[in-house]
Design goal:
With about 850 residues, the chain is mainly beta. It has ten helices and 50 strands.
Amino acid sequence: MNFRHFTHAVIFFMLLPFLFISVDARFAKNEYPGQRSVIWDVKEKPDIDTLVVIEQAYLQTDRTYYYPGDDIWFKAYLMDAGERLLSGHSKNLHVDLISHSRGIVASRTVRLEDGLGNGDIRLSDSLASGKYIIRAYTNYMRNFGDQRFFSKEIYIIGSDKVKEEASNEAEYFKTGIHLSFFPEGGSLVENVPSVVSFKAVDDQGKGCDVHGGVYSSKGDLVTYFKSEHLGMGSFTLRPRAGLKYYAVFREADSMDYRADLPHSFPEGLTLGTTMDNDGNLVVTVRRNPRRFHSDSDQDLLLRFTSRNEVLKTVLCKIKSPDTYFVIPVDDLPEGIIVLTLMSLDEVPQAERLVFISKQAPAGIHIRTDKPVYDRRDPVTVNLSLPVDSADEVNGNISVAIADKDLMEGAVPNQSNIASWFLLESDVRGTIEDPSYYFDPSNSGRLRDLDLLLRTQGWRDFAWKYNGNYFPPEDGFTVSGRLREFFSDKPIENSRVSFAIFGGDNFLLTTLPADPSGRFRLSGIDFSGEGRLIVTGIGKKGRLQGLLTIDSATYIPPEAPEIRDGLKVVENRVNKMRTWYEISESVKRQYRLSDTVKLGEIKIIAERPRDPQADKVGRSRQMYGHPDNEVIITEEMDSYPNLVEILRGHVAGLIVTGSYPDYHIYIRGAGSVNSQRPPLVLVDGGKTSFEELVTMPVSAIDRIDVLKSVSSSGIFGMDAAGGAINLITRAGGWGYIPAEYSRNLRFSGYNVPRIFYSPQHPAGSDPQYGPDLRCTLFWKPDVILKGNDQQILNFYNGDKPATYRISAEGITSSGIPVTGSTEYIVR
């Protein structure tokens, strides 16, 4: 660093203490997409446990299968599980794309507004074929481990073959069927009839149909059983004292297997539930007859909880070996409810899960104007919610229209927004065919759902007391500590100055450090990329001390393991790979991408873009060409500040006074008699007069001076004394800060791109611009109101296929809604 650059840096940081802007820093949106946040902070667990909110996230993606170079479009929803409504608890949603090797290949930080957000991920052209996971979580969810995270499997299909030998999967050998038993209420009790549910799975964890019999240790056949749905079923058993029980079972044509049932207890009780014809919950408590006579008329508590929230507690008086209670469920929310039977001193005795279904899952009505289309035909889609005309129900939904083969998962009945919020996020283990339980056309779905709850059970939401607390994020945070350089002592009455510059955004503010030297700037709402400069200030405004930032990188949670590769979908993969190779050859010929397929423009040559010229043009959008312009040259770096550069370089601009009390007037401006100071702008945005003194010369590319009313009048009376616009350098500036300062790259929210759907005029010829899009349409922000219809219009591409229209969303009352339909392009 030469002497003049060093002098310039020192002067800049000496002047920063005079700045003061609101701590709750809000930026305008940037014009280019950024990466994820680079500042991360973990606080110690608070004295009072504030974990009273259970957040749930969900992503709808435009499809399940992608090609290298494609775009993943997604809509994000964040729900408060207790309130069953969209949540504004966290503002930041982290989205990661995870590879088979457990590496994070792409990340986004999405801004959530009242629980809603959207974004996209551009896949690299060199991405290897295989199964990937896209996950979504808030920082606050990390307090519960990864059990609250949303995750979805997607597949990348390229021309390369999946190398199975490079996989970390174990070789598959079928060793048999695994049968597990789940007594209703928790355990078997001697001489008490119990409903015993079971689940049979193969070595890959998939449910398989079995049948067999239950035998006592004497060899007597007690009962037969047969699975009803995905290897699940139930039977009734009254265990006898002194006997053990086992099952002998088989698949349709397999060998016999044996599995032992859980042992029974001589004392205890069981808890069972059913629903009566009026929709009330019937709770049955059964006790050992011999034990009952010794402590009859016992009082117990029946507690109803949902996601760790106690909904209500009912006092139950046990007056017989078999006691029944009829409990209305009108005041219970829809979804999974935990029933815990406990003693008066709250010692749990038995537990049971039930699903409260208030109404059939809401569906979105979708209708196309025709069932079959030709290539490049226009398509009209009508969307509406099936609600009574008296209901004031609104829905915020996202709509994807793509090749059906690329939207379907490896198995039918894949996850949707209803199955995730109402079931999957609350039940441990992988759920096969989750959306099956929320399809009203499946008459036995509620019976099978009850089997699922009786087998896979409830998920624990216990707080993990590991010493760290992950706070909900409301924008980005910069925190750290300022101390003396040669000791660990804080600097008395110290302050910290923050400067963030990037694109059209900037922030300058000063905060006091606490008595220990720590500082924290929260609520930064920033999109895109910029530079962060943090500087320590001691007594009398001197720059001093040793400044440290807590972290310069966001540390994401550990990536989960991905299994199975593409084995389960290999037949479909071969078809997709063939199409990919054909489309890639066409793309190379016409220089096309997956998202934008323009046939109207023929590119002859690309003109190199000058980033600085683009920035100057954007900064002058409000007023056009200035009356005067001062271009900052390398020789001007020796000037102490921008005011001294303006002195004598612009005719009609008068500078009086000296640092730091400057006064500037512009002759010819509308208020020359009142000598009103000019309005100061940075890249076209209004700022304070102090910027002329504090902004480093090396950060500025040029200074525009607006003298006449015709040029400055667009800014109103604020510019009655003229205006001065400081246009910053597109590439930032470089100098080496001292120990009391840190200069870091700062990345904010990802700015989602707008999905482009081209129009094809009648008679357009595909040979002059092939349209090979797999996703024809994506709109993440469709609002449905009552019975009003929303109409969407788009054009088909050149790929003949069956296309699916998929819509998912949330109503204003927190009800997940879904809908889909299909049409053919020939």
